TrEMBL record:
Family matches, as Gene3D superfamilies: 1.20.120.1560, Glutamine synthetase/guanido kinase, catalytic domain
Entry-linked SMART domains: Gln-synt_C
Assigned protein family: Belongs to the glutamine synthetase family.
PROSITE patterns: GLNA_ATP (PS00181), GS_BETA_GRASP (PS51986), GS_CATALYTIC (PS51987)
A single GO molecular function term of this UniProt record: glutamine synthetase activity
Positions of the GS beta-grasp domain: 91-191
The name this protein goes by in its record: Glutamine synthetase/guanido kinase
Naturally occurring in which organism (per UniProt): Rhizophagus irregularis (strain DAOM 181602 / DAOM 197198 / MUCL 43194)
């Protein structure tokens, strides 16, 4: 029956009707994507068309923090947004926010309002309205979301508040309607942050303030060519990795449905060892789904740029063009949501778990992070002469100093029960946080440190040469090829890649809000420290000299040298070297979470106004609690699978072997039943061990409930439950190799994965 169910699901997948999606056209000709980009977004451009000019100008001032939002402006924006949305089929609106659950939340309200006044016919007025107060805030039940002890169950009041920096948008609803989404923050009755976005916005402001102060010090006399900077914002481009599998087969795997990963399952003979999946041709079914998702995202103003096969079978990636980090976070969450919905329509299931399949690569969310001014200048662009670009070097050493001081904090930002399966597994950076700069920048920093000339001064871009000749040497079909300033180090958790840093260790299913918040905060604090060092070095002089700048740059080059590593972060040699450098190697999440409360980190976060003390402690509590719950859910799921599916099949298999032996020996000598006896002798100890391990898991789950301290709970599950779950997996995978395919109760890897 198990084999029949699997076969039926596979046949259903092949027999599915092709989903037809019409690409936007005009007069029968497909539109350029730029022509419908953002058509479902109530953007500033759209707002300017819908609002009177004075109201629009007032809104822009208020959005940029110039003054508090007044009632007239909010009512006008709300009215314009409602008309715009209802003209596009919207019947409801929702405040869309990011509670500390790793995903988004929404409560949908209708535009329909009943007025108690009567018309001339004696009917109650029914009208569609949307007021400024409804736009500004809503009131979800705060007691039903994680609060880390800040709120009791009876303290239910909380508020979602419109984030004016992120545009409203519409998404499809049921029956051809649509819904107006209002990006929002989520706070408690007393104003504490209960979400991911509030602290992200705070960190962005703190970083901007610190960066502007440093830029004022460097450039005290602005000119037209070098104007004064009033705002610095972080830019972010999020590379989203994921798996896509058949939804029918997915439905037969309770471990995938409940936990997001396979808790048992053997590797097939062919998986990723041929290295032929990366950048290979996408399966037609997958390409159709991703293409439709891109179409919807373009309408939502998400600048999706890249799609490709990843390293593992059934693994893929989508990546956007970088944009303001606060909007990029929203767009990444939208990407995950849209991809989930579209995959469902194609009878596929998207898996965001960092390690859904043991033995093949897991998924990450590479965050390409940089700093940009309000004039559009990238502060991490080294230019063609980075050795004399003191602005670039000051920001570079400030970032390195942030990583050096707050490496544990950055590690805490990427920690989770699911990401622990991926980190340090030769597919993602290890628990040691280091920074990679590349040969050229490393030589520049070393030369400044040693007060010597640079050994080799290569231009930012140079022609690649083959055998001493330029590739475009009179070969008309080949262009000249340009080489970047730095190579890429995919093993580094924090690598400089030309004009940005790539934070590679972020997990694929987590929101980027939290890790980017911590990174922004650490860099803001470090920039403040560098600014103070420059002021001290300047002394009574009216302005900084180049010598002052070089002195401070050299100081931080020396201070941060231990955090820089140019080699293979996967190697055992690096683990040993990192230990001699005094760098922490945090392998598991419970230890990583404690770094939030280390004074060097907590004092910085509280001082810069990113978290209050209670918010930080609640965050620590929530992370520990979630870690424990994740593992307990996995343990209970594994327990149920083994008890109700694996062991019964093993009993049936042994019984059939025993009956076969009896039949053989009734007509032949015992020598003829040796193969069957050998299989029983191999299978029986495995079954006995499984029974023993399952009894142990049941006992351990009860023990966790007796522990009150959240850290001790997490530590117990990590040190006791995880190892025995791995032992159970090994035993079950051994049975999978032995038991007849027609009996095996779960879809196997070779059936789940697209090749």
């Amino acid at each position: 029956m198990s084999q029949e169910a699997r076969i039926n699901r596979i046949i259903d997948g092949y027999n599915r009707p092709n989903r037809v999606v019409e690409f936007p056209k005009k007069n029968g000709t497909p539109l350029y994507t730029s022509e419908f980009f953002g058509e479902n977004v109530f953007s500033l451009k759209t707002m300017a068309k819908c609002l009177p000019k004075p109201v629009y100008q007032q809104f822009i001032k208020q959005m940029r923090g110039g003054q508090v939002m007044d009632k007239n402006t909010t009512d006008s924006v709300a009215h314009a947004a409602r008309i715009w949305a209802m003209d596009r089929g919207a019947t409801h609106f929702t405040h869309w926010f990011q509670p500390q659950t790793g995903s988004t939340a929404e409560k949908q309200d209708s535009f329909l309002t009943i007025n108690n006044n009567f018309d001339s016919n004696g009917e109650i007025y029914q009208l569609d309205t949307f007021s400024g107060s409804q736009l500004l805030q809503s009131e979800p039940d705060a007691s039903s979301f994680p609060s880390g002890g800040m709120r009791s169950t009876f303290e239910a009041r909380g508020y979602t508040v419109w984030d004016t920096t992120s545009p409203m948008f519409i998404q499809p609803g049921p029956h051809g309607t649509s819904i107006l989404y209002i990006p929002s923050i989520f706070i408690s009755y007393n104003g504490e942050a209960l979400d991911e976005k509030t602290v992200l916005l705070r960190s962005s402001e703190a970083l901007s303030k610190a960066a502007v102060e440093l830029l004022k010090l460097i450039n005290p006399n602005p000119t037209d060519e070098n104007p004064h900077v009033t705002h610095v914002y972080t830019t972010l481009g999020v590379e989203q990795e994921f798996f896509l599998i058949d939804r029918g087969l997915y439905s037969l795997r309770s471990d995938l449905k409940i936990t997001g990963r396979t808790l048992v399952g053997r590797l097939p003979p062919k998986h990723q060892q041929m290295e032929d999946h990366y950048f290979g041709r996408m399966p037609t079914r997958v390409l159709s789904a991703i293409s439709e998702a891109e179409l919807e995202l373009i309408k939502l103003g998400v600048p999706v740029k890249t799609r490709h096969n990843e390293v593992a079978p059934s693994q893929f990636e989508m990546a956007p063009i970088f944009e303001d980090a606060t909007i990029a976070v929203d767009h990444n969450l939208l990407t995950m949501d849209v991809l989930h919905k579209v995959a469902h329509n194609h009878k596929l299931k998207v898996l965001y778990h960092e390690k859904p399949f043991k033995g093949i690569n897991g998924s990450g969310k590479h965050c390409n992070w940089s700093l940009s001014t309000n004039h559009g200048e990238n502060l991490l662009d080294p230019t063609s002469t980075p050795e004399t670009n003191y602005r670039f070097l000051l920001f570079l050493v400030a970032i390195l100093n942030a990583v050096h001081i707050h490496a544990g904090l950055l590690r805490a930002g990427i920690a989770s029960a699911s990401n622990d399966h991926r980190l340090g597994a030769n597919e993602a950076p290890p628990g040691i946080v280091s920074a990679f700069l590349g040969e050229h920048l490393t030589e520049i920093l070393n030369a400044i440190e040693e007060t010597r000339a640079i050994k080799s001064s290569e231009p930012h871009f140079e022609s690649i040469k083959v055998g001493g000749t330029v590739l475009d040497m009179k070969i008309s079909t080949l262009p000249e090829i340009l080489r970047d300033l730095t190579d890429r180090n995919r093993t580094s958790p924090f690598a400089f890649t030309g004009n940005k840093f790539e934070f590679r260790a972020v997990g694929s299913k987590q929101s980027t809000s939290f890790p980017v918040t911590l990174l922004n905060s650490a860099v803001a604090s470090s920039i403040q420290e560098v600014t103070e060092a420059l002021l001290k070095q300047k002394g009574d002089k009216p302005t900084l000299t180049d010598e002052d700048k070089i002195f401070v740059i050299r100081k931080y080059i020396i201070k941060t040298k231990n955090i820089r590593f140019e080699g293979d972060n996967y190697s055992e040699a690096w683990v040993k070297e990192a230990e001699t450098r005094g760098l922490p190697n945090i392998k598991k999440s419970p230890e990583a979470f404690t770094k939030l409360l280390d004074p060097v980190n907590s004092d910085m976060l509280i001082k810069n106004g990113i978290f209050t003390k209670s918010e930080l402690h609640s965050r620590h509590h929530i992370l520990l609690e979630k870690y424990t719950k994740d593992i307990l859910i996995e343990a209970r799921t594994l327990e149920a699978i083994v008890k109700t599916q694996i062991l019964p099949i093993a009993y049936e298999f042994r019984k059939s072997l025993a009956e076969g032996i009896k039949s053989i020996e009734s007509v032949c000598s015992k020598e003829h039943s040796v193969p069957e006896r050998n299989i029983i002798e191999i299978t029986t100890p495995i079954v006995i061990d499984l029974q023993k391990y399952i009894d142990s898991i049941t006992t351990m789950i009860k023990e966790v409930g007796k522990i009150d301290d959240p850290y001790k709970q997490a530590e117990y599950t990590e040190k006791n439950l995880l190892p025995i779950m791995e032992e159970i997996r090994i035993k079950v995978d051994n049975l999978e190799e032995l038991i007849s395919d027609k009996l095996w109760p779960l879809p196997k890897y070779n059936e789940l994965l697209f090749y």
